[in-house]
Amino acid sequence: MEIPIIKTDDAYKGLLERDAAVGMAAHFKDAHDLLNELVDYGTNLVVRAFDSSKRDLIAVCVLFVQLRQFLMHLDGITILLRNGSSGTADLQLRSLLEGGHLIDWALKKDAEAKVQHLYVANLRRRRHWDNSVISGTPEFTKHFDVTGGLKIAPEDLKDVTEEAMRISSLLSKAPFDAIDAKFEQYYKQRGFDEAWYKVYGAASIRSVADELGRLKEYTYIYSALSGVTHGSDIWKNVFFGKGKIEISPLREPQYIPRVVQLAATLAFWVFRLVLSQFRSGEEENFDRKFVGEWRQRFWKKYEVQLVPQEITI
Fold this sequence. Notes:
Helices cover 66% and strands 3% of the residues.
């Protein structure tokens, strides 16, 4: 078919019709409310779990880093779905699944050593960027074409230099010195640090899932979402058949229930993991809350049938 000529600064309605997408998304209010409640519960869980923890590095890394990032992506999904953007929510779903696997894996065994690797990875990254503006360091030379023109106030440079020195001092002491040496070995070979879980000993996120006995989850969910993340999934975007090509619109509100069910499933799993580790005995209360407040909406079948608008070329 012939594509109509429109103003170049107007959205082409077949690809993006914002008001219609938001209107369609409103049909799934119960689903949106469910995710909002899970985000709210999770934010309270972060604080309650830390309050009952040993307040050590494990608690800081699992609750304030990993769980917080999990909730950040869960909250991002709620924002996207209210605008009917279920397609791009797949990126957050992939991060939720990866985050859940790493939380489970970190807590499963040898948690102290694993979070130490996470901590060292972050210390090294911080020092690397500090050094990129400190004259005479290898990082300064490496990034000079980017950072050489930066104007840094003397007092700010002093703060950055002192921080880099503090990090180096910390990494020189046990147990971080041995872990730092492992990272440094990778860095010298490749010019960048490997992911913290790889330096610890896991070959990949896939191997983490396999070790947890969740390989099918990785295969059928994580891998499937990777194509969207890397912009390489043809079939999520284009359809071929009978001499025509069809392209899907940018927003796909008809898929909101699928996204909500998957996101909620991951949230239920991660929240229970955290409860069992930091607030043991509270799992029964959580199960009652699930049955009384969330289960019916989680399994709700929506009668609204929303067919995606497609452009035929």
